[in-house]
Amino acid sequence: MNSGLVSLEVVARINKVRIDVPNIVREHCISSDDIASDELVRIAKRLGLRAKKKNISLDKCHKKYPYPIIAQAKDDTFFVVLGYKEDEQSVLVYIPAEGATRSVAMEEYSQLTTDRYIILSHRLLSESVRFGLGWFFKEVINAKGIMAEILLASFVVQLFGLVTPLFTQVILDKVLVHRAMTTLKILAIGFIVIAVFEYVLNLARNYLFTHTANKMDAKLGAQLFRHLLSLPCPYFESRRVGDTIARVRELENIRNFVTNKTVSVIIDLVFSVVFVVVMLMYSMQLTFIVLGFVAAIGLLYLCITPELRRRLNTKFEMGAKSNSYLVESVTGIQTVKSLAIEGSIQRKWEDHLGHYVHSNFKMTNMSNITRGTAGFLQKLMTISILYLGVRLVLDNELTIGQLIAFNMLSGQFAGPVLRLIGVWNELQQTLLSVEKLSDILNHPSEIQSENAIVLNKLEGHVVFDNVQFKYAPDAPMVLNGINVKIPAGSCVGIVGRSGSGKSTVSKLIQRLYMPSSGSVRIDDVDINHVSPIWLRSNIGVVLQENYLFSGTIKENIVMGAPNASMDLVLHVAKVTGVHDFVSRMPKGYDSEVGERGEGLSGGQRQRIAIARALITDPRILIFDEATSALDVESELIIRRNLHHIAKGRTMFIIAHKISIVKKCTVILAMDNGELVEAGTHDELMRIPNGYYKKLYTLQECID
Q1: Is the pTM of this model over 0.85?
Q2: pLDDT for res 492
Q3: Interhelix angle for 400-441 vs 284-331, to 10°?
Q4: 137, 293, 413, 488: which sits with the fewest CB atoms below 10 Å from its CB?
């Protein structure tokens, strides 16, 4: 028994959070042994609970946190603390191993626990909340304690910035005039002490900042990838791979803006006011000159915003196209070399790269011109301050030290203000990043009923009830009025011309797509109401082209059942012919398959894919042209074992070769999205001028 998952289930149900333990076990590849507390916290967060680990006494925990909480025992198992009665000195606990709730005295409890707890509370945020900058600021607020420390440290560092102008003024007006060397020594020592303190404070602030930013990166990156995996297949099929990758990378830009600029904007706003007040104490005339030039620079940045936004968007689009073409070219490198089209591929790449470089040049050029103009105005401001300031010194309204100090203060004022103005430009980049990333995060996940059903056991009875389907609202109908009932344990062959809708039927059974009308039912339950993860974990699928992941042969076989024993691995490997070639490899099942399985032949990859589908012992098995890539020997092994493979499960064999489906319980003949004939091979062959008979005759002629 996994006491951690049982404890989490108890707490989740008390918090009215829906939890499906079997799905969690499959999703997180959890064994029957107890999981680590870190993994338990991660699963709790995945469920939408706020979760954190605490090393704390029960007395303090009782005063700070609501029940129930999960406690870790000295033997590293978990149990639930439901309450604590101080007057009776007893604790109400639920211990999974006992399967019951009981009250234990504090003495017994202290012997049981390690004072390590997992604190859980209600859902953080509704899934209906749309993605935007607020999504990130929520994470900043969650780290409000650390952010407050960073703000305080930044505030003190900025205060030290006032020291240098004042120090310079005192030296010029007091030390030099009165030759006060003792005062100079005291000032120098004081300045060094302040500089050292500022250095240490900056180190601490930067450490906290980096630590917080990295934690936020990890958390938001995990949330983004989790949502990406939950998106339906049509999302990926309607977008280029490079475009999706480019959108994911925008997360870094947004996080950097929210964490770095949030603090700097607050500090700069506060100190802009502070510097203005201090400058007004020196000279009102000079202060108005500074404010006038700063306003002109601000107006300049405001005017270029629409054009800057347009150029940023163009740069992103060109970059996404370049990424997509690069991924496409590298993925299809064998085809490129086979066709000897390196030259044309290079020319197209240079075209894409040229467009990207040109768009980047136009954006950078605009930024450079704007920055240069702002720098020119800043120099004019300095000249104006010195020109008018000298006249004020000559009129004895200012001392030389005060003029120099004011000039330094004006620079320190202009710096934060210019940073604030610069933030406006960065905000445009960030808003564009939010817009691009929201295409992923605001796209709805796979449709799942709030009360998704998990059946106790899948039998494999499949019904298509007047199913119609098209891939897009304005697309032609792919399936039209499909009505068929498949009893559990049947072996179903599906044949037809290319584009007749055979593979679409298998995708609807897996709930990769939803019918446009009608319903698909498994064991008399509409699959729209069934958990898609649970459903797919009970369906094995082998395609014509299967994807193998980097790792060993064994790792690829047990991907859907990570706790499978080696005996089971050997069993499915022998049934599918994998063992024949693996036994000849020096490292056996620990042999690396390479990226996408490139280290293996097409037939070997296909046999591993079939073994991977069988390892979970699915109740429904789908072969979608699964044997077309096999050599004659491998196909013979699969055909010989087909009866054993199909035993006890409903099997769908989609094939162009009719010889493979001849012995199926029922054969479905499809044409133009319609089910035109259904029956056994002999029944269909008796239909005069039948569609199936025609296909069979044509193949016999070819053979």
Answers
A1: no
A2: 93
A3: 30
A4: 137
- Taken as a whole, the chain contains a residue count of 703
Examine domains 3-123 and 462-702 and report if their fold is the same.
Answer: no
Tell me the angle at which helices 241-256 and 133-142 cross, rounded to the nearest 10 degrees: 50
Pick left, alpha or beta for residue 240 (phi over 0 → left; psi -120 to 50 → alpha; otherwise beta).
Answer: beta
**3-123 CATH choice from 3.90.70.10, 3.30.450.40, 3.90.226.10, 3.40.640.10:** 3.90.70.10
Q: Is 467 left (phi over 0), alpha (psi -120 to 50) or beta?
A: beta
- Sketch the domain layout of the chain as residue ranges: 3-123, 133-441, 462-702
165 closest CA partner among 261, 264, 274: 274
Position 449 scores a pLDDT of 52
pLDDT of amino acid 483: 93
User: What confidence tens digit (pLDDT) does each residue in 153-190 have?
Assistant: 777 776 776 667 767 767 766 666 667 677 777 777 87
What is the tally of helices (H) and strands (E) in the chain? Answer: 28, 16
Place of tokens 């005996």: 567
pLDDT in tens, 609-640: 889 999 988 999 999 887 776 677 777 777 77
Would you identify the CATH topology of the domain 462-702?
Answer: Rossmann fold (3.40.50)
Q: Could you tell me the two tokens for 448?
A: 């799942």
Burial class (CB in 10 A: 0-12, 13-18, 19+), 347: exposed
Q: What mean pLDDT do residues 36-54 have?
A: 80
